[in-house]
Sequence to fold (732 residues):
Amino acid sequence: MPLRSRRNLYACFCYFLVFTFSLFAQQKQSEPLATPILGFSPPHAAAEHQLESTFQSIPSLEQAREWHRTFTAEPHPAASDRNNQLADFVADEWRKQGWEDVTLRRYDVLHSRPRSISLEMTGPVHFTASLHEDAYDADPDTKVPAVSGSYFGYSASGDVTAEVIYAHSGNPEDYDLLRKNDISVKGKIVLVRYSNPYSYRGFKALTAEREGAAALLIYSDQRKMATRKERFSPMARGVRKVTFSAARSLTITSFPAIPPRPAGPRSSGQNTSRPKKRVRSRKFPRSLSRGATPSLFSKT
Amino acid sequence: MNGPEAPKDWQGALPITYRFTGAVRVHVKVDMDTSMQPYTVVEARIRGSELPDEWVLLGNHRDAWVFGGVDPSSGTASMMELTRSFGELKQHGIRPRRTIVVCSWDGEEYALTGSTEWGEQFADELKRKLVAYLNVDESVAGAATTAGPEGLSFSPSAAASLAPMLVEASKDVRAPSGKSLYEAWRATTMRDSKASTPPLDSALVETRIGSGSDHTVFLNHLGRPVINLGFDGDYGVYHSMYDDHYWMSHIGDPAFEYHVALTRIWGLVALRLANSDILPFDFGFNGSALKQFLHELEQENKAGQRRLQLKRLHVRIAQFEKAGNLLRDAVARDLLSGSASPEKIRHLNEQMLQVESNWLDPAGIPGRPWFQHLLYSSRYTYAHLEFPGLTEAVEKHDWKLARQQAALLEKAVEKNTKLLRSAQSSWEKSNP
Fold:
């Protein structure tokens, strides 16, 4: 928990005295013009510049680091105990900082998280994918058991054993090419990759569902990462020697999810509780693993 | 696998031949818990000293897929430094003129749920009071250690009416490279686009806004202008376990200087919106962005030009742009001379907020009634989408619907042009 820095307080206070006086002075007589600011009269622009330089003197690198350490200390997905503790922490800090009307608003919504997910190759050889990223020695956080395996929010539950078909990026034109090669994905498990070219993962799931696939696996291929989000910087790769990095994400296709939602009056105030089924899960099971992929290809 | 070989562009980085099929059977078992769970939004405010019923809203989501080193806790660290700083200002008796509200959202990764719930719960109040929403999801989404001498790219997006004030504010913040944020922004934009000359100010801000973060409900559903702020660069640990404090403190932003630079620009934009006499909306610039959007729509759909006349919409947008420029210049003149009465200023601010509200169509865009903004929406991929009703109709070659949508836009633009003109004439009327 960061300690409040006091080192700038005295300087700030002196600033404010000067600032208050100069504000008065400038309103009474025309002082030399400060750099104008859109929407400010000249005297107000001068006062604003003063106030902004005071503001800019307050944030500190060390404090930012401490906040970051606090918020990243443990996994904190929505609806986890840790994320709810952090809500209380934020509220407490804001009160201490002098913010007003600090309020927690609670919304009860349809959530989605894995109870258990497994992925195994049953033939021609047997292989069980871990679905967990490997710990990285220099980084103790990566050894925390609370880290989830990979999963997709709002995936349906299910149990499927079937043949695997590789469908490139999982876009409609990829299925067209499969069809040209007399390959049907009906009832099969489709394996696709992110970003070649980019398409939203929810769209991949929707497309696989439309094509009649029984399940979908998505992995990240290091070739042709289309977006900066997915591209490894050389340094990151060098430092980490990452062999398996799993993205967790959603697969629904409306953002924000809209139907179904009951109409009617809404309560407000502290701890508002409004049961609402916000999103529909997709209809078929799927999971994700990049770790499993090399084996799926190479062990045959 | 041992089936037929996949084509060249299906091949990847693994040291094997990628094939369509093979004798591989897999067992997938997924057991999901889909029970109702509580999400918690934390809100707080510093009440405005003069205009408490005009709000500037700041927000960042709290929930992460795992540790959230970049997404979202870099933004959270920047936000907590901002709230700490504003708290100190307040303790010295310095309140903003307008109310500043801050929210820690929940369930952003789960379909933007926390901010959407909150935005819907307070919809009526927000439509009346909200001046702008300033969102920060990831404040530092890139590796400063590999970004080169110009550093990470400042990559904000903003509703076009707010783009000029954002560019102006960037001149008063220092970037980690030592330059002003404005100069650093120009340099990285030039670098990233491999251009040989620095970009024009008018090209700095991305005015195309998709979805994918908590600004969505405020822009697309409530019709309030939004700004998204952040730095980015190469970032290979997206939504993985490795997106954590170690990554940030060794590779991302070891000095945490980008975090603090983001706190400063976010705070400056908030303070200017909260303290300005006249809200710093630039509808002239807004008009020029609309012109550009329409031009792009036509370029991408040349085939449909005979089926759809957009000349009238062009004219309406040009009129809107001109009215916006004239109003902006008239206001700047009178602000400089100090001749505007508080009553006139209040009235003008109301009219400016109304311009933003007028982009809402309560019927929503075709097929998606929740998305009510006529200028901005997003695709299901959450990519940006301008003139959504018109663009989607054109893409579907539904010319009847496209003509209806164009007419709807013409009407909305014309209504706002009238409002800008009337704002200008009432502003100039009682001036000496």
